[in-house]
Amino acid sequence: MYHDSIMTTPDSALVNVGVPLPERARWYCEQLEHGKILFFAGIPFDFPQDDRDFLLSQKQTGSRFHKNISYRPTRDLLKGESSDSPDRERLHRIMRHFSQEATGFVSKLLAPYAGKMKLDFASFRPLEEEGRDLPLHKRNDLLHVDAFPTRPTRGGRILRFFVNINPKEGRVWNIGEPFDVLMPKLVQKHKISPPHRGAVVRGLARAANKVGLPVADRTHYDEYMLHLHDWLKENSDFQANSPKQQMVFPPGCTWMVYTDGVPHAVLSGRYAVEQTFIVPTEALVSAEVAPIRVLEKVTGAAMAG
Fold this sequence. Notes:
Blueprint (H helix, E strand, L loop, with lengths): L5 E3 L2 H5 L6 H12 L3 E4 L8 H8 L12 E4 L4 E3 L8 H22 L8 E8 L31 E8 L6 E6 L2 H12 L8 H12 L9 H15 L1 H6 L2 E6 L4 E5 L5 E5 L3 E8 L11 H9 L6
Parallel strand pairs: 1-2
Antiparallel strand pairs: 2-9, 3-4, 3-5, 5-11, 6-9, 6-11, 7-8, 7-10
């Protein structure tokens, strides 16, 4: 069913992606938006081996709640590493460089998004995913779609760019059916409906934001996606019986995917670096398959408010 879920980019695109043909760039965007994964056999930009070796030498604790080192590029802020660590300054520099290189590459390859997509967090994921002791809703090995509790997208799509810097081990995923295929079946069978925050509650959240209080200003879409993220992980029948395909992303490869529209689970792997982008609906080339549009169609409810 999913034999064509991966798009493999020719090697020439890794070397000479500076000026992709407009129709090719648009096609890449279209395929990603329809649930495909864009795969590169190598790393398509400058990522020095010394920097990768340094990241491979980092040891995170086995904390149940702090699984990643996070970099917030718009504030040039590193999180998840001890402030007195002797390696902190170099780690900060490497994450900054990775974020800048990934952003430049994606802006060129996916030209319709350039200047429109929002730069979100980058992360370094050094821990082995297999066998981690995590609360249910934080487990990565269960099929789910992404939604951010503290950073609502308000209908924007979550595009993630991954590099497996592990020189010996692949990163193993399961992927499920694309969102526009999955959701009509789920809504018909299970009548999934999250709590609907009223206009007064949303108004209070927006007022709090205006005075600087960190309250997430979520739309109905954001609430629905958060509920769906948890529901998918909680539902044992879905986890056991929904169609899925296993994929192995080998050492040294790169891939891009809309993780809000492709149900995915990380079964094993360590040492991945990732950059997230939020692509607004007005920048999409196939907005009709965006999760917000799919949900509006299958539920009959407005999602933007």
